[in-house]
Design a protein that fits this description.
Layout: H1 2-24, E1 26-32, H2 39-55, E2 62-68, H3 73-85, E3 90-93, H4 97-110, E4 114-116, E5 131-133, H5 138-152, E6 157-163, H6 166-181, E7 185-192, H7 200-209, E8 213-215, H8 220-232, E9 238-241, H9 248-254, E10 262-266, H10 275-288, H11 294-315, H12 322-330, E11 335-337, E12 340-344, E13 350-351, E14 354-360, E15 363-366
Parallel strand pairs: 1-2, 1-3, 3-4, 4-5, 6-7, 6-8, 8-9, 9-10
Antiparallel strand pairs: 10-14, 11-12, 12-13, 14-15
Length: 368
């Protein structure tokens, strides 16, 4: 009888703990590339999420499950399903556009909200009511670069050398359409595989096509090699890139060859005098030992969005469910994040501004 009573007591205790956890905590699944070629971006996003969680006054009510998807769609889908089995209420993930594109249909099917800090593929706009993103669509980035090159630089011909991933292909397509509609002509258009190191053949052909500008939608590691090799081949042309180039390592790797490159970037500025951004930069630097990039800022904002949704539901004394979290996120307007003030439109796309930056005297500066 004593053993039976003891067993029932343990069972009741376990049930109470389980019920308490389900009622009072929200499980947030987090998946990003933490190893591999693009781990630098995934780790920055993760660190931003961790800082936001550590700062939260309801952190004890939010459980994080962090996984490494290695930037691989199959791995990400396996992790996604495991997060569902572990009762995730919301997922912050899909850092790469290709991964987000693979997971968004699953999020819609399982009716679980998914928030991507950095996916930018244009087709994600039509992923369903459970997918949100904090990074602007490539449609926007590609359009403003095309507009800048055509109307400000007044270039009439452009060469494209892009990373052969959804990210690069998406921007290529939008840029080409917009640039040609403004009277421009794309005289060279070719992709390269992630991790490529030798671009001399393509650069010789680009030089022979004699473009007014060279546009390189890609990541800083490969772009640094492109810049060095372009200099070796005496390719003297204005070079443009995208927001993934904002990393001090491109200056370290390319040296003076990085001077003058122009690229788009979110309004986030780690040197801003804004009190919210100053506090974020100080806390992030103290915690991780380096200044936060825009990827870290977007990870931070993603976690803040989740925290905001939870607090709104608690204030209204509504149950915290996948559906209620989705509904609260969809209502967000003029959210004051460190990556800029933003809202979500009816498609879950973010509405926020971007700017142009360049490298001048070995430093990143904003083009006014």
């Amino acid at each position: 009888m004593k053993n039976k009573f003891f067993g029932l007591s343990i069972l009741c205790l376990l049930l109470l703990v389980s019920c308490g956890r389900n009622e009072h905590s929200t499980t947030v699944g987090v998946l990003f590339p933490l190893t591999g070629d693009i781990a630098v971006y995934g780790n920055a996003i993760r660190d931003g999420i961790l800082l936001a969680h550590e700062e939260s006054d309801i952190k004890n009510q939010i459980r994080l499950i962090i996984e490494d998807d290695r930037g691989d769609t199959r791995t990400a889908m396996t992790i996604f399903n495991s997060l569902l089995l572990r009762n995730a209420d919301i997922i912050i993930g899909g850092g790469m556009s290709s991964v987000a594109a693979a997971l968004a249909p699953l999020a819609q099917q399982e009716r679980i909200p998914m928030l991507s800090p950095t996916a930018s593929l244009p087709s994600l706009t039509h992923s369903g009511e459970y997918f949100f993103r904090i990074w602007s669509s490539d449609n926007y980035e590609g359009r403003i670069i095309a507009d800048y090159i055509a109307n400000v630089v007044q270039a009439r011909t452009a060469a494209l050398l892009y990373v052969n991933l959804d990210y690069g292909v998406g921007i290529r397509d939008v840029f080409t359409k917009e640039f040609e509609e403004k009277g421009g002509q794309v005289v060279f258009n070719e992709g390269y595989e992630p991790g490529a190191t030798d671009f001399r053949t393509q650069l010789v052909r680009i030089r022979n096509s004699n473009p007014d500008v060279l546009f390189i939608p890609g990541y800083f590691q490969e772009v640094a090699n492109i810049l060095r090799q372009a200099k070796e081949l005496n390719l003297n042309v204005q070079i443009f890139g995208i927001s993934s180039l904002y990393d001090e390592r491109i200056i370290q790797l390319a040296g003076e060859q990085a001077e003058g490159i122009i690229f788009t970037y979110p309004m986030y500025d780690s040197n801003s005098g804004d009190e919210i951004i100053q506090t974020f930069v100080r806390n992030f630097s103290d915690r991780f030992g380096n200044r936060p990039s825009a990827f870290a800022a977007h990870g931070y904002d993603a976690m803040k969005v989740v925290e905001h949704a939870i607090k709104q539901l608690k204030e209204k004394k509504e149950p915290i469910t996948k559906e209620s979290l989705r509904n609260e996120i969809s209502k967000i307007r003029d959210f004051n994040g460190v990556s800029g003030k933003f809202s979500f439109d009816e498609n879950g796309d973010v509405i926020k501004s971007m700017r142009f930056m360049t490298v001048r005297n070995g430093e990143f500066v904003t083009i006014e």
